[in-house]
Write a structure and sequence with these properties.
Elements: E1 3-7, E2 10-13, E3 18-25, E4 33-39, E5 46-52, E6 56-59, E7 67-72, E8 77-82, E9 91-98, E10 110-113, E11 117-122
Parallel strand pairs: 2-11
Antiparallel strand pairs: 1-3, 3-8, 4-5, 4-9, 5-6, 7-8, 9-10, 9-11
Length: 123
């Protein structure tokens, strides 16, 4: 299975931006559906963005227009650019990979998880 390591989390004020990175090893991300999830305390893990092969990118309504998922195949790295951050975006963010041809924004479709990186947005 592919191994995933996130970085780039931190603390920002509302309206700010962060870019998360997810470095992959043991597999090529272009062979998988790849996604970003987040989980806030007391809440379920939520798939916020994904890259589904042959179908393109998918976003949760709560982040559409503010977050952008992208990948650098040469670096085998996935990114999540987060703009206009809100306090409700505060969560642990996880990188994930699943079967290439289905949207892996559902946790049941994920085969590999990263360890997570914390994002905190203050008002």
């Amino acid at each position: 299975q592919v191994q995933l390591v996130e970085s780039g989390g931190g603390s920002v004020q509302a309206g700010g931006s962060l870019r998360l990175s997810c470095a992959a090893s043991g597999g090529t991300i272009s062979s998988y559906c790849v996604a970003w999830f987040r989980q806030a305390p007391g809440k379920e893990r939520e798939g916020v963005a994904s890259v589904v092969r042959y179908y393109g990118t998918r976003y949760a309504d709560s982040v559409k227009g503010r977050f952008t998922i992208s990948e650098d195949n040469a670096k085998n790295t996935l990114y999540l650019q987060m703009n206009t951050l809100k306090p409700e975006d505060t969560a642990m963010y996880y990188c994930a990979a699943g079967s290439s041809l289905v949207d892996c924004r559902s946790a049941s479709r994920v085969n590999s998880w990263g360890q997570g990186t914390q994002v905190t947005v203050s008002s």
